[in-house]
């Protein structure tokens, strides 16, 4: 679903990845990380889709909230397992959302 | 694929959408818009995936390049058709990419 976010400015983390194919409990970890992210202070929402490339965009109130989430011990472990097992490559882009526009039928 | 972008800062447009199900030449329009975008000044790359929600992130050198692309006549027509036919809802978020990190095995 499309995340309902707050008035700009807020922050986004764009995580784009290509997987190795070693699936090895990937979905369980991805789901558990998303549940954990939702409980972090400053989390606003997230959107995710995967075909050849996977894209997860999470939205946050501040850069500080993003830093704390990136440093969360369980997230650190997931990041290590991601590099060892699941991801062929990825990009993380930390963004300030300066303006937004929503359309709904 | 994961876009190869320039040194930060640069800009990103996160386009998140839910489709109506009326397909009506959607893929042709989406492909043709992506080809056209690639030829615009300041375009750096794009990433795209769709499941329940579709996410396309395009990267640009400047806000000005984004404004020009949004105002491009062929893109305007595509945007109108998108609202009329293809999209149940969408969000467009204009972002400044402040930092990035790349991993490759």
TrEMBL record, chains A, B:
<protein>
    <submittedName>
        <fullName>Antibiotic biosynthesis monooxygenase</fullName>
    </submittedName>
</protein>
<feature type="domain" description="ABM">
    <location>
        <begin position="9"/>
        <end position="80"/>
    </location>
</feature>
<dbReference type="GO" id="GO:0004497">
    <property type="term" value="F:monooxygenase activity"/>
</dbReference>
<keyword id="KW-0560">Oxidoreductase</keyword>
<dbReference type="InterPro" id="IPR052936">
    <property type="entry name" value="Jasmonate_Hydroxylase-like"/>
</dbReference>
<dbReference type="InterPro" id="IPR007138">
    <property type="entry name" value="ABM_dom"/>
</dbReference>
<keyword id="KW-0503">Monooxygenase</keyword>
<dbReference type="Pfam" id="PF03992">
    <property type="entry name" value="ABM"/>
</dbReference>
<dbReference type="InterPro" id="IPR011008">
    <property type="entry name" value="Dimeric_a/b-barrel"/>
</dbReference>
């Amino acid at each position: 679903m499309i995340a309902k976010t707050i008035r700009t400015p807020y922050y986004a983390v764009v995580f784009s990845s290509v997987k190795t194919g070693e699936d090895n409990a990937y979905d369980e970890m991805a789901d558990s990380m998303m549940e954990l992210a939702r409980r972090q202070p400053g989390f606003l929402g997230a959107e995710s889709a995967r075909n050849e490339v996977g894209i997860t965009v999470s939205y946050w109130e501040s850069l500080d909230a993003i830093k704390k989430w990136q440093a969360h011990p369980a997230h650190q472990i997931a990041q290590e397992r991601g590099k060892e097992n699941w991801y062929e490559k990825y990009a993380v882009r930390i963004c300030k959302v300066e303006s937004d526009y929503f359309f709904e039928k």
